Every structure is written in structure tokens, then in C-alpha cells.
Amino acid sequence: MVDNTLSPHGGKLTERVTPLQADDQRVRELKTIPVRSQIASECVGISYGFFSPLEGFMLKADVDAVVEDMRLASGYVWSIPIVFDLSLEEITRLSLREGDTLLLTHQDQPLATLDVEEIYAYDKEHLARQVYGTGDENHPGVRRTYTYKDRFLGGKVTLINPPHVNPPYEKFWYTPRELRERLAERGWTKVVAFQTRNVPHAGHEWLMKGAWFAANADAILVNAVIGEKRTGDYIDEAIILAQDMLRAAGYFKENVYMASILQWDMRYAGPREAVFHAIVRKNLGCTHHMFGRDHAGVGSYYDPYAAHRIFDELPDIGIKPVVTLEWWYCPACEGIAYEGLCGHADRKQELSGTFMRRTLEIGVRPPPLTFRPEVFDLVKECADKYGFGSPFVTESYLKNRNPVMTVPPLGPAG
Q: Which of 138, 186, 276, 401 has the smallest count of CB within 10 Å of its CB?
């Protein structure tokens, strides 16, 4: 009997990867346009099946259905529009029409093709209000939406030049098919996913441990979001290497813990992004997904537990949410405590990211019960090795960092 919780969203992985060689005539004949890092990452996500059942950038009917009803036109649950934007000036310059095929380049190299099925306008303010629950430009997802160009192009995407993933990320990069094979090799049939864009402190560690118990899982899959950075964020290298240090230092056994990466620019869409995360991790082969306080939120735009309640409104999407309350340090309990159990809420000491950042900035090692010393030391090493002296994103890091992926020249002719 097939366990449907392990099926990809839509029933099968979408895989659209057809490598071309440098002498392929089709490359020379196509209309060409360079794409920014967000679009390049989404081409990779679509082509390898991270976003199954999507086969390309959304047509208007799909965007309408997602914006209004949190579903694709086919009826499958989906929560965030995946769109390709292009200006009217670029469309005119290329004499672009529906039925054309575009060659998408990144880092001055061919990356993918886009079969243009539809060119359409969209009300960006309406999209933002529906998806993010606000039209406030201070919300990073809203601000991103308002910068989109005049038109959206919908159509299928094919990756023709798979990028190379650079160190230190290459050890943690798996396509959905590769990751599913890895989970099967380890005999893991119940895997709970942990979404993160942070260096782990004790609250994160216990969130994972609590979810592992709650799901009666074989293992935890950390899937760290590696993508667009703002000044003040943790640098990507520190995020993934620190997560893996929890395993290397023995805070999780080798046979119950694995770290991986997802190339995705966070939208900070709160409950809607929680649904998106669940679908992506379902495609990776996970059976459960943990959701803590203020999942994928930003500022005070969402109730801290909105990402818990949204799953009550959805049909069974094939991955089970594991919802947890807050973990904090309790001086009365003399350790890490859980909101659902600890009776000393009036004395709690929140394991805030702000506090952890401050300790890193001043270089004073915090108590081991709040921030593991091995993690602290590794993050400081990453600051020197990758962050130009800081574990947090600076203008220097944004300008000079080693990219996560590099698009190589097309393979040799013939």
C-alpha cells in the first residue's frame, strides 16, 4: 500500500531539466533576456520539482485562483503566486508574443527557457493585500510585489544549464528526487521538517526535539532557506553550517538529523508562507512539518499563531502540521521550558534572536543552555571566513560574497 503522505504535491515530481550543449542551434535562435537572482532560483525550483506540481511561471487563471482561494486552477492547494515579470519596454524591444520561447540568462550564461503561453497585466496592490493581508510597503513581501514590472509572463520553464552549487553549500544541496532517495537509503519513513533562516539557539533546538517526539518521527530534516539577504540578517554560510553543527557536536544523533538547503527568497507571508513551506517539504519527502510561534512572520503583521490556525481551514494536503508553543529559559525550572508545561510564565526569559545577536556582536559567550558553545564558536569562525568580519549581512558581504550557485558556460560542443 502506498503512503500518500509521501507523494509529491499533485501526485508526481515535476522535472524539467534538459541540458543543452554550446553548439545547439536553438540557443542562438531564441530571444534572450537576463534574469535577477530571484527568478533564477525559481527557475531551478520549478525545474527540479521543489514547486511541484508547477511546470512554469503561473498563468493568470492560476494567479487568480491562488490570490482569491489559495488554490491553483487545477484545484490543488497553493498559497503564493510564482510569477515572471517583464516591462512593456522589454516586451516591445523583443517583439515578444504569446507562443514565443525566451532564453533566460543569469550571470551572463544561458540558464533556462520559458515557453510564453500568456502575457497579462495584474493588479499588484490587490495581489499584495490578498497574499500578505496588507498593502503596507513596509512589509517586505508587499514591497517586493510593488517592484514587479508591468506585465507577467506565464508558461513552462525548462532548465537547460544546471548551475553549480558552491562551497560550503554543496554538501547540503539535494534536488527533491535526490533527497527522497537519501531518506529512503536511511530507512526514514516519518520525517518532520524544520524551516529556518536563522542560526540555531536553544529554543530552536528544543522546538525540533519537541516536534520529533510529537510526530513520533524517524528523523528531523532541517531545510534552511538560502536566498535574498538584507543587512542585519545572518550570513547564509553561518546559517547552514551552524545547523549542521548541532549534529556534529552530538546534540542530535547522526541517525535522526539531517541539514539541507532551499534556495528561496522569503516573502514573510506568515500563514500563507507556512502553507507554501509545507508543500515544498512534502515534495522533499517529509511527512510532517513543525510550526512554532510567528512562523514566517515579520513585525506585527500577523498573529503569532496564525500559521497554526490556517491549516484548520485546509483539506488534508498530504503533510501533517506539528504545531508548538514557545520555548523559553526558566530560572525557576533551571533550564529550557515549554509554554504548555511551565508554570512560571511571569519569570520566563525569552530566547530572543535579538539577545543572541547581541552576544555575537560583543563576543561574550552566552550560557550553554541558551546558545551551544560549538555553535557560537562556529558562527564566529564564519564571520571571519565568509562574512568579512561579521556574522551578519553587511554591504561588504552583499557586494563581495561568494554566490550560492554559479551558472557555468554550456557544456562542450558535440
A: 138
Neighbours of 281 (CB within 10 A): 26
Q: Please give the mean pLDDT across all residues of the chain.
A: 93
pLDDT of the residue at 353: 67
Catalytic pick from 196, 223, 283, 324? 196
The pLDDT of 232-238, averaged and rounded, is 94
- From the candidates 198, 357, 359, 394, which is the catalytic residue? 198
Contacts 24+ apart (CB under 8 A), 7-12: 7/318, 8/49, 8/52, 8/53, 8/176, 8/282, 8/283, 9/52, 9/53, 9/76, 9/77, 9/279, 9/282, 9/283, 9/317, 9/318, 10/52, 10/53, 10/74, 10/76, 11/53, 12/52, 12/53
CB 18 within 8 A of CB 160: yes
Residue 229 has pLDDT above 50, yes or no: yes
Listed in sequence order, the residues at least 6 apart from 259 whose beta carbon sits closer than 8 Å to its beta carbon are 172, 222, 224, 240, 243, 244, 247
Residue 198 among the catalytic residues: yes
In the annotation, is 324 catalytic? no
Which of 16, 197, 267, 372 is catalytic? The answer is 197
Q: In whole angstroms, give the CA distance from residue 292 to residue 325.
A: 6
Among the listed residues 111, 324, 300, 319, the one whose alpha carbon sits nearest the alpha carbon of residue 208: 324
What was the pLDDT predicted at 2? 36
Give 378-406 pLDDT, tens digit per residue.
999 999 999 999 999 999 999 999 999 99
Is 282 within 8 Å of 9 (Cβ atoms)? yes
196 is catalytic: yes
Residue 362 has pLDDT above 90, yes or no: no
- Residue 84 clears pLDDT 70, i.e. is over it: yes
**Domains in the chain with CATH codes:** 4-162 (3.10.400.10), 169-400 (3.40.50.620)
Neighbours of 312 (CB within 10 A): 7
